[in-house]
Amino acid sequence: MKRDFLRDIATGIKWIHKNNIVHRDIHDGNILIGNLESNGPDSNILIADLGFSRPAKDNLESSESNIYGIMPYIAPEVLNKKQYSFSSDIYSLGMIMWELTSGYRPFYERKYDSLLALDIFNKLRPIITEDTPHCWAILMQKCWQSDPLERPTIDEIYDEVNSRYWNENESFIKEAENKRQKLLNTGKLAVKYMHPHSKTHSQLLNPTIDSMLLQGSKSFTLQPIDSFQSISSDSFNIIPEHFKNADSLNSTINMPPSKKHTIEFLLDENYYDSQPYNLSLNDAIYQITNLSNLNLNHDKLCYEAGKALSEALCTNSNLKCLDLSSKTLCNGAGQEIARALSSNNTLTNLNLENNYLGDDAVMALSKALYKNTSLICLNLRNNRFDKKALAALCKNTALTNLDLNENSLGESGIKSLAENNLGESVEKALAEALCKNITLTNLDLSWNNLGESGVKALAEALYKNTTLTNLSVYNTRITELGGKALAEALHKNTTLTNLNLGLNFL
To answer: Is the pTM of this model over 0.85?
Structure first.
């Protein structure tokens, strides 16, 4: 049924975007479900309340600064007072997807205030439930990317949820259901605390956002620190009759004033089709050989491009900082870059964030770090590793800064990226490696779901490790027992000066 819900919602948003409309207020209260008991295609899903909607071109040109909505569904760029776009609707859809799997509104345990807005702006996202299917979680994470350019279009989402894999492959549904039943039986799905939200429908958010931006400006840096809820008919406006006939969308609509602005006309041109930006590395190698800093952020590198970059790294004697974040590097390109690291002795900073590197690329990178003696800062946030790769990373003798934020290290090899959790056996492998590592000073494990035995193993490592000075375990679901283990370790650890335990269950 959840697949049917998502497919219907995607169909509705596709219709809206096809007609050049940005909805701007997609949340659970504006998703109407009919014939729920039919458990099939007759469960009609309607997207309501187009009162805040705008023609896409008008949306960019508008000087209106008022922001309405419910906090968790508002895209980060909108919180930063950037214009609404098709991509901001996609972000809201990502939160709807999470709500479909969890059964709760995003951040149900928190007050919808400026602190939450600041955390969302700093990449805070709901923790993905263990019973979420892999393909669902991957698509959901793409939808709530912080960078609007990294989010898929509604056409891409529509094609995926209507693909043969999603609709004919029942194995991942059965697996997810089995996990859900186990979680229900163990009580892990039970909610211990739900904040008594009073604002369950769209509100003016400008005062809250202004407060958030003020707090952000005072901070040294903005750092990352199975059904809908009941909805009432008074929290939304049913879609106007004017919008039910697509032919009328390109004509002027005369409507009486209301509490919200209405659409007057829509333009026909496909104004917002994005064009990919391609960089030919083969033609630019001669320029690369004299650079000290190279930023290829947001370029999608194929195997040939990765090979060309690899050759440049082997011959370049000046390059120190290489930013390949958000590249969606293919496995072959990742392997080529890893091989280059084996012979490169100048690169000190490498950013591979948000690449979803495959098994072969990650293992090649780990092996390269055995030979590389210059790299000191490595950002591997939001990738995927197995425990062997993790242990190899910690055995490097030069690395001082390692960012493993938002990874999903499985207990018996690589787990789904979408699961977003460190397996306990992997955490033990990390702890063992930390006992032997003599150079690592900064370690970020934020946003990983650490098991109880894994936390205890990490605490034991802190007894022996004499170099680590900064450790972040922000939002890692550490319980009271894990907190006690860490507290005991701190009595004997003489080097750790900064410990981030934010958003845990101590």
So the answer is: no
